[in-house]
């Protein structure tokens, strides 16, 4: 019997976390990390890519970095596939026009490619 973390099987979640960590590290060059970071948050059956930036005009030196979700990756256990969502200006998530895939790396490549400018502008 497989251990489950949320709705994602443990082994799938572990592979996803490793892949997302590498993706986030690769996306932002070392010289820019004092100003911008790319992180991910896992919750239930979703992983959300989040861009973090230093505050534009901080009031205090320890003010929180801004948080802006970029893309949401959803795992559906029954077919064992990942799908991709984008977020509109009203903070609502919508399905991205891309077939659900078995390998998360395919969706991350699509987010990187961003042919519509919906993820990175």
Ranges where pLDDT stays below 50 over 5 or more residues in a row are 1-5
Structural class: alpha+beta
- N to C succession of SSEs: EEHEEEEEH
Distance between the termini: 43 Å
**Quaternary state, please?**
single chain
> Tell me, what's the shape?
globular
How large is the count of helical segments? 2
Rg over alpha carbons: 15 Å
Largest sheet: 5 strands, antiparallel
- Specify the helix fraction band: 10-25%
The domain tally reads: 1
Question: How are the strands of the biggest sheet laid out side by side?
Answer: 3-4-5-6-7
Strand tally: 7
Report the portion of residues in β strands. 25-35%
What is the averaged pLDDT score?
91
How would you sum up this structure in a few lines?
The protein is of the alpha+beta class and 121 residues long. The protein has one domain (4-113). The protein has helices at residues 10-27, 104-113, and strands spanning 4-5, 8-9, 36-43, 46-53, 66-76, 81-87, 93-95.
Question: Can you describe this structure?
Answer:
This protein is an alpha+beta fold and about 120 residues long. It has one domain (about 5-115). It has two helices and seven strands; from the N terminus they run ββαβββββα. Strands 3-4-5-6-7 form a five-stranded antiparallel beta sheet. Strands 1-2 form a two-stranded antiparallel sheet. The radius of gyration is 15 Å and the shape is globular.
Topology:
Elements: E1 4-5, E2 8-9, H1 10-27, E3 36-43, E4 46-53, E5 66-76, E6 81-87, E7 93-95, H2 104-113
Antiparallel strand pairs: 1-2, 3-4, 4-5, 5-6, 6-7
């Amino acid at each position: 019997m497989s251990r489950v973390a949320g709705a994602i099987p443990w082994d799938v979640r572990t592979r996803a976390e490793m892949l997302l960590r590498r993706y986030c590290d690769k996306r932002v060059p070392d010289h820019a990390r004092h100003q911008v970071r790319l992180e991910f948050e896992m919750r239930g059956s979703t992983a959300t890519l989040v861009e973090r930036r230093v505050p534009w005009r901080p009031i205090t030196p320890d003010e929180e970095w801004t948080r802006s979700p970029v893309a949401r990756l959803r795992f559906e256990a029954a077919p064992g596939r990942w799908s991709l969502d984008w977020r509109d200006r009203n903070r609502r998530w919508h399905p991205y026009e891309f077939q659900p895939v078995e390998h998360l790396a395919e969706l991350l490549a699509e987010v990187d490619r961003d042919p519509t400018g919906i993820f990175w502008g």
